[in-house]
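Lab notebook page, bench 4
Experiment: in silico fold of construct C2
Operator: M.H.
Input chain length: 128 residues
Purpose: comparison with the prior construct
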Amino acid sequence: MSIRTRLTSLALALMVSGCGAGQMSSNGGGPFAAAADGPQTISIHVQNLNFSDATLWAVSQSGRQRLGIVGGKGDAVYRIAWTVPQALQIEIDVLAGSRCTTEPVQTDPGDSLDLRIQMDLATQQRCY
């Protein structure tokens, strides 16, 4: 069963989907054993509609981790270790432009997120 949640923040579309909640593991250890056996990463799919390159950072209670640079009008996919459910924010630093942060999104191991960087970020609330 797949759960899809759409959040719009900062004119950035951030979509989270996850599956497998409550499934039994092959060893019959219950739902908590299934979580321990499952994926320990998340995927972040980025579409940059801006003409400028953007450096991306994943920000969580575990700290700040550099994802990489996505070129202007380019796409990228990042995978990072994610072992416990926690809130995630993406910080976007546009070359010679705005720095923005998405709203926090509760993220579980195995989730796949879609991030769309809009052309004009300067007018958004969470940009400076």
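Observations: The chain is about 5% helix and 50% strand. Residues 1-13, 15-26 have pLDDT under 50 and may be disordered.
Next step: discuss at group meeting.
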